[in-house]
Amino acid sequence: MIAIGTYIKIQRTKQKMTLGELSEGIVSLSYLSKIENQKTEPNEDIIKKLCDRLCITTDQSQDEKIGELCRNWYEILDESSSEQEMEAAYRDIQVMMDKNYSNHLIMFEIHKIKYFLLIDRKDLASNKIKQLKEAVNTFSIEEQYYWYLYNGRYSFLVKNYYHSMYLYKRAEKITESYRLNEKIEADLKYFISMTYSKLRNSLEAIEYASEALEMYMKQYSFLRCARAHNVLGICYCHIKLYDKAIKNFKLGLQLAETINNKIVIQTIHQNLGYLYASKGDSTKAIEYYKKVLNNSDVTAHIKVEVAALLVREYYHSNYYDEAEEYIDYGLSKFYDLKDKQPYIVYKYILRSYSYLLEERFNYFEQLLINDLLPLLKQQKDYGNYILYSELLAKHYESNSNYKDATQYYREASQMYKHIAQL
């Protein structure tokens, strides 16, 4: 059962009320702090006064119904569900939570982190994490597991991969002594594999993705199997086992097409584009990138990213007219974005090729040196850091500036060594 102090604490932080504001005229600030941290048991009169000020009750008559609604909502919290379906269920639960003292409150609040990430509201997810941090020491073992899991997912999506891995490993530690259902544990293995992939630890990523895939196959989860095959494809591509990569991408694509999941189809098409670009086959890379843009359901920020990838392939294949076309397309999509900051790296990439085509070489050099390369290093995007360091080095070399060319070839070489150490 959720402790009354934890209940009060969560409701207070949700309403952005300070300890002083809630305690004034009822109890001392220090006594309220003790109540919230379960260091004392208040009498019923104090509980009623605190709840009245928060406009909440201690009625638990609807708790069984709330639990059922929560479990159903957790089941549909997935990329395959519509945003409208998830929101409708969320609103129904929230109305009941606001009127009742429920044992399901903490788990519901933790699952909001996942929900906010699914609807691409990282700001709300971040605020929820900050709110719940105050109550972490009161979480049950199962609540701690989901807390680490969804915190890890948030860190992953804001590209803090090392912190994400730390949180996932905390969740994994819990599974050693506390058994969860196989679907939940498979999801954790899948998330760990994705994070290892981002950290370029391909062998560990392959091991975790393979374990997740095996578990998903037993559950006949086509969607999750498709995602696991996609991660395996990425990892095999990283270590240049292209045949294995293509095999996994195509298996994932078949599964995604079977269930008509356009998000996974788009993702695998994009990754096949990366693969063929890595092999130096620009024609095939362009073919797959265009398939992504031809998907009417692709989000605007993906269009910006893929436009930048297309420009790179067209430019290095000497198709300059097509490169210019997609520079204009990508920049127009970028300026249409409501939240531009997370995708500014693609603006820099598009601008860099624009300056090269216009022979505005001083602008090109300054953009890479002052903006693009520092941002890529900050984001730990080692692959693109190497690509654009080498692009800058080749530019200097073609202009007989061998001193600066040597510097940026060295930068690329050092980053290769760094990735090898990782």
From TrEMBL:
**Where, subcellularly, is it found?**
Cytoplasm
Q: Which InterPro entries match?
A: Bac_ResReg_Asp_Phosphatase (IPR051476), Cro/C1-type_HTH (IPR001387), Lambda_DNA-bd_dom_sf (IPR010982), TPR-like_helical_dom_sf (IPR011990), TPR_rpt (IPR019734)
Alphabetized, the UniProt keywords read: Cytoplasm, Repeat, TPR repeat
Gene3D superfamilies given in the database record? lambda repressor-like DNA-binding domains, Tetratricopeptide repeat domain
Q: Which residues form the HTH cro/C1-type domain?
A: 8-61
Q: Which SUPFAM superfamilies match?
A: lambda repressor-like DNA-binding domains (SSF47413), TPR-like (SSF48452)
Instruction: Please indicate which superkingdom the organism of origin belongs to.
Output: Bacteria
Predominantly, its location class is: cytoplasm
**Is Cytoplasm given among the entry's keywords?**
yes
Give start and end residues of every TPR repeat: 266-299
Report the family membership.
Answer: Belongs to the Rap family.
The protein in question is named Helix-turn-helix transcriptional regulator
Organism taxonomic ancestry: Bacteria, Bacillati, Bacillota, Bacilli, Bacillales
